[in-house]
Amino acid sequence: MSRPSEIADRWRSNVVLKRDVFSTVERGHFHTAQGEVEAVLRRTDEVPWWSSPLARHLFTRESRALLRANPLKIAPALLFSGRRELVRGWIDGVALHIARPQGDFTYFRSAKAVLRRLHRAGIVHNDLAKEQNWLRGVDGRCYLTDFQLAFCFSRRSRLFRVLAYEDLRHLLKHKRRYLPEALTPAELRVLARKSWFTRIWMATGKKVYRGITRGIFNFTDREGGGPRLVNDAPVIAARLREHPAVRDVAIVAFPDRRSGTGLYAFVEMNSILPEKDLREFLGEKAGPPAPEHLQMSGALPRNADGSVRTEILTLVAMNQVELIDTLIASESERVVIARIVAERRNLRDRFAF
């Protein structure tokens, strides 16, 4: 990967987290006056000419919002902002769809306090329907990330109040999923009532937005996994399940140094085979490229309903195994996970968002 021109002597890249027509996002280290720190770089110097105006607009919005949010300590710190490169701090935590804070009163109290502080500062996030934009830090508290669609207001105008209401409504949708028993009557009323802005958007602009992002730009991002998780993973999983020794398959995505987004297949086996045999089986039929990592196991961690706990497997794939302990539900599950962690394939890269 090329070196960013504005901070070439201060930035050391480890891995590309994401690359699209609006920016490239890298994880690495940034040299500050206090020393070198872990950080995330967003750069627009390599985007196509035809997407450059919108890319610049999104870049500017994120820079402005992070700068205003710096004193609040609820979002990544803005460490540098230039013409085409922005560096933000790294938050030690995981996204909501990985953390899955079932029954976590503390997290959702923190999340509501975070929104209150954000809105008091005149900032609306405007993209909180995505669970990957909500982080659960290792301290158990809530943090927000990805401010490309954020707005900064100088006064509490009608538009500010509408967008702030939608920020809150999206928080309550996540709370309804993970902590429904704690919803208050007032919160239930908010959930039941979309703003006029949202009703108009869903009836008109959202259809155009989906047509452009999914049709033209091929944005099929699902929980941060990107097109490979959406398009390739189901085909690979179906092929693996055709093997008589395979009982079940779970495929998750992780940022990869070489391909940008890698696939990690966890295969639950009736009998363990050499990995090369399973890869040869995959290659017998034409299809998408094989996953970067393929790990066989006698058992996968499961929820009470029998579904695979992909949030734990995602942490294994990203080599963030120190964050798994608080998610383990029982001693028997701990044994299953310990075996998977001990045999994990991705021992080189470490990732966090």
What report would you give on this structure?
With 353 residues, this protein is α+β, with helices and mostly antiparallel strands. It folds into 3 domains: 11-89, Phosphorylase Kinase, domain 1, CATH 3.30.200; 93-216, Transferase(Phosphotransferase) domain 1 (Transferase(Phosphotransferase), domain 1), CATH 1.10.510; 226-342, GMP Synthetase, Chain A, domain 3. It is 37% helix and 22% strand. The chain is built from 11 helices and 13 strands. It has helices at residues 52-69, 96-99, 105-120, 158-178, 185-192, 196-203, 205-216, 226-241, 275-283, 310-317, 331-342, and strands spanning 11-19, 24-32, 35-43, 78-81, 85-89, 93-95, 123-124, 134-137, 142-144, 151-152, 246-256, 260-269, 293-297. It has a 5-stranded antiparallel β-sheet, with helices on one face. It has a 3-stranded antiparallel β-sheet with strand order 6-8-9. A hairpin with a 4-residue loop joins strand 1 and strand 2 (24-32). The model has no long low-confidence stretch (mean pLDDT 88).
